[in-house]
Structure formats: C-alpha cells, structure tokens
Design goal:
alpha/beta; 16% strand; 4-stranded parallel β-sheet; 216 residues
Length: 216
C-alpha cells in the first residue's frame, strides 16, 4: 500500500513548488530533486505544458527507489483538477479556497491541499480534506501559523509564499507540518541533497526499511 501524500510531505518537511519555462525544464528539475532525496514535488499550472511534465515525472522514483509523488498546484478549476489527476498527479493544491477543485478531489478520492489565509479559510480546508496551504505565508509569518495550530492542532498546515530555505526551521518550530519553497534551493546536487537530508524524518516503518530499487 502506498504512503499517503500527507505523510510523505510531513516527513519531507520541505515541499518544492516549481514554476518552469516549459515541460522539459520541469522534468529536469524534478529529476534533480528526486536524485537529491526529495520525493514529493509540486508542479504548477503556470508552467506551459505542465500536464505533460506530470505525465513524464509521475512514474519516476526517488533516490531510495520509492515512487515519486508529483502534485499539481495553482489549481482553481474543476477542469484543471481533472487534467492533473488524469496526468498522474498524486495530490492537488490550490492557492485559495477552490470549491470546484475540492469537489473533484472528493469525487476521485484525491489528496487536496486547499489554500487559504484567514483562520476561517484555513479551518474549512483542514476540516474538509485534512490539509491546508497558508498563502501568502510571509504576510502573517511564523507567529500566525503558531496561532492557527493552537486552534487546529491536528491540521496539516503548509505555509507557502515568500519563504526562504534558511527560514524553514523557524516555520517548522511554529507548527508548520511542512513548508512550500518556490525558489532559493541550491543548484549544486550535493548542497541540495544536504538540505533534504537535514530536514527529513522517517515517513513510515515501511519506507524506513525499504531496499532501494533501480531508477527507471
């Protein structure tokens, strides 16, 4: 049985959010992230040819031989959500409350990280699907997430927007389950691998004892 996307994201603690010039660029970046020890990646609909990129990267495996979880973000319509799942997306992400996307996720039993900013929006997203994206996170800062967790202790909260890699630990100690990073990750493979190695927690017993498999 596959690991749930929420569990993988929570263990990884840093979710790369990719906006590329084209599908080829997205595939190259996802491949580099997987080789660096990343497993869950969010592509966005702002990338031309994003559906093709999802189709090409969804079958890949990470450095430990586990199937990659390629999600799609910046989803705002039912048509986009359907296209993302048809392309092989492992999870869906919206930038703000998106009832149409929520309904597609419900109907197709897909993991959905719904965006919001106000406490009411975050609570609605968390209670509906279990996970919420705080966006734009830099406006409220880590103290805002701490306040949200005080009233939503079980919620999977993923702040995204304006966060630099060096700030990740502060957000995590404030209660974030994971942090979305749009840019600023190192390009050097060894440095990139060090970032994920420092943050990663075990996903589950099954993953911790998994024997690496050859990459396709």
């Amino acid at each position: 049985m596959s690991c749930h996307p929420y569990a993988v994201i929570a263990a990884q603690r840093l979710l790369p959010v990719l906006r590329n010039a084209d599908a080829d660029g997205a595939v190259r970046q996802v491949t580099a992230l997987l080789a660096a020890g990343c497993r869950a990646v969010e592509l966005t609909t702002s990338t031309p040819g994003w559906a093709e990129a999802v189709t090409r990267t969804a079958p890949l495996t990470d450095a430990h031989g586990r199937r990659a979880l390629v999600g799609v973000g910046t989803l705002t319509t039912a048509a986009q959500a359907e296209a993302a799942l048809d392309a092989g997306a492992a999870f869906l992400v919206s930038p703000y409350p998106a009832p149409e996307v929520r309904e597609v996720a419900r109907r197709r039993a897909a993991a959905f990280v719904e965006g919001g900013f106000t406490p009411g929006e975050i609570a609605s997203a968390a209670r509906s699907g279990g996970a919420a994206k705080v966006f734009p996170a830099h406006v409220g800062g880590p103290r805002f997430v701490r306040s949200l967790k005080a009233v939503l202790p079980e919620a999977v909260i993923i702040p995204t927007g304006g966060i630099r890699p060096g700030d990740v630990h502060e957000w995590l100690t404030s209660g974030a389950t994971a942090v979305g990073i749009g840019d600023g990750l190192p390009a050097d493979p060894a440095e990139l691998a060090a970032v994920f190695a420092e943050l990663a927690l075990p996903c589950c017993a099954r993953c911790a004892h998994r024997t690496p498999e050859p990459r396709p």
